[in-house]
Amino acid sequence: MDTGDRFNDECGVFGVFRNPGASALTALGLHALQHRGQEAAGIVSCDRGTFRQERHMGLVDDNFTSQDVIDRLRGDCAIGHNRYSTTGEPALHNVQPLFAETAIGGFAVAHNGNLTNARKLRHTLRASGSIFQSSSDTEVLIHLLATSAKATFIERFVDAIRQIEGAFALVAMTDNLMVGCRDALGIRPLVIGDFEGSFILASETCALDIIGARFVREVEPGELVVISDRGLESVRPFPDTPPNRFCIFEYVYFARPDSMLSGLNVYEVRKRIGRELAKEGPADADIVVPVPDSGVPAAIGYAEQSGLPFELGIIRNHYVGRTFIEPSDQIRHMGVKLKHNANRYMLKGKRVVLVDDSIVRGTTSMKIVEMVRDAGAAEVHMRIASPPTTDSCFYGVDTPEKSKLIASRMSVEELARHIRVDSLAYLSIDGLYRATGEDHRHEVPQYCDACFTGEYPTQLTDRADRLPQDHLAFLERA
């Protein structure tokens, strides 16, 4: 799916085991994870063996604030999901959690990530008689579990996840169990919390904070946690767990600034990114201005390191209506001005350092630069708080094809001319790693940074015919 000049967030998952307010808590958790997906939301609850489902297009607040909805989701266990589609069109039948009745009972699953061999597995399953109800890659997992010859649910679940490739943070539920699992590389986040003696699973710690839950620990890469009335047990489904390759772009953009990821505060990492950017890309300027909201922490760090004043030279409108209800072509074509407006008083006559998290196609950057110049800025120096985005993500982030990523076909100098800035500088890949506390990027990197380097840490089975030979060689080296 290819919808805009920004990275679109992935998905958020949340689960509550054995709490009488499970569905209400799940709705609150999804509200805190709304930044990870705004297309649709769903909750499945379990009440003494009976599963109840609510799935809706739109935001959590639009669908899960009514007491009637929560009352319909009775039960002391629930899992929820915020969706931004990365595979499968935006339609109700693709909204998660997905649920199925299998030979060993009901099973619901919510998935953050993307399976890179889903198309191949779907073809094999269809050939053996499986009938798919959605175009989501998550449904592949349900069919793998349902057709497994193993005896117990956990054995079937392990059998299923050993067959899938790519990135996944899963929360699943039966009538008496809840499980959480991360892929062997730990590309996507998943944490464990405790709320009044009830276990919580969530994509980020900010979702624990909203309900007052205590952070227990992260689900480790390649770990399956099984939550039952006996407590929490850890299973290692993968015989060999390679080094962690957590998605480094979670720190740049995706995660909420108040979350903790791998022991690091996201807001602090983003400020460090800004400091590194100021060291690598100084500018002779008067003020530092963020592109809100994602550029704000990095701009604060840039200002602190450079000694330049931090100013809100662009103001964001947080109450923008959806494009399909805009009344005319004239309004529709206003584009970026619907979301951002220049603060002319702060910009007029100033040499401005404009800090943003990334450049995708370049169209939004061009419009923002034009807006800042029209407000009277004397110079505009763009600084990007990440390396050039040159490659698509296949691990659960909705990104354009490589050919539509402007940094993949233009040099920094060409791109600076294209978006009409006086200068342009990106953070280096080593600078990004330093901001996370590493000394530099190793030959086999400490994070997944494929969107910057093209070095994908897993097989891309469904795209094998399009893979360059240098990627295949990298996989052999890794």
- Largest sheet, strands/sense/barrel: 7 strands, antiparallel
Through-space gap between termini: 30 Å
Task: Give the helix level as a range of percent.
Answer: 25-40%
Strand elements, count:
21
Arithmetic mean of pLDDT? 91
Question: Stretches where pLDDT falls below 50 for ≥5 residues?
Answer: 321-329, 467-478
Structure overview:
This protein is of the alpha+beta class and 478 residues long. Helices cover 28% and strands 24% of the residues. It is built from 17 helices and 21 strands. The strands form five sheets. A seven-stranded antiparallel beta sheet has the order 3-2-4-1-10-9-11. It has a six-stranded antiparallel beta sheet with strand order 5-6-7-8-12-13. Strands 16-19-20-21 form a four-stranded parallel beta sheet, sandwiched between helices. α4 crosses α5 and α9 crosses α15. The chain is globular and about 70 Å long. The two termini are 30 Å apart.
Give a summary of the structure in a few sentences.
This protein is of the alpha+beta class and 478 residues long.
Strand-helix topology:
Elements: E1 12-17, H1 22-32, E2 40-47, E3 50-57, H2 60-63, H3 67-72, E4 77-83, E5 98-102, E6 105-115, H4 118-127, H5 138-147, H6 153-161, E7 166-173, E8 178-182, E9 191-195, E10 198-202, H7 206-211, E11 214-218, E12 224-228, E13 231-235, H8 249-254, E14 260-261, E15 264-265, H9 266-280, E16 287-290, H10 296-306, E17 314-316, H11 329-332, E18 340-342, H12 344-347, E19 351-356, H13 363-374, E20 379-384, H14 412-419, E21 423-426, H15 429-435, H16 450-453, H17 469-477
Parallel strand pairs: 16-19, 19-20, 20-21
Antiparallel strand pairs: 1-4, 1-10, 2-3, 2-4, 5-6, 6-7, 7-8, 8-12, 9-10, 9-11, 12-13, 14-15, 17-18
Helix pairs in contact: 4-5, 5-6, 9-10, 9-15
